[in-house]
Write a structure and sequence with these properties.
Length: about 60
């Protein structure tokens, strides 16, 4: 599956997946065969960072 290219839609999609299906960003990335750094870089560009304690981008 392709991830959304728009960073705001990507943010919503990733946070929903983290909330509903995955206990960590690493698990999500393993299933999607993508490096966590790729998602983090895209979302960092629009001001969001991953918070492992909350398991979401904020």
């Amino acid at each position: 599956m392709n991830l959304p290219s728009d960073p705001i839609i990507l943010l919503s999609y990733i946070n929903t997946q983290l909330r509903d299906k995955y206990s960590s960003l690493d698990q999500l990335c393993q299933d999607f065969n993508i490096k966590p750094e790729e998602i983090s870089e895209k979302l960092s560009a629009v001001g969001y960072e991953y918070n492992a304690e909350l398991n979401q981008f904020r």
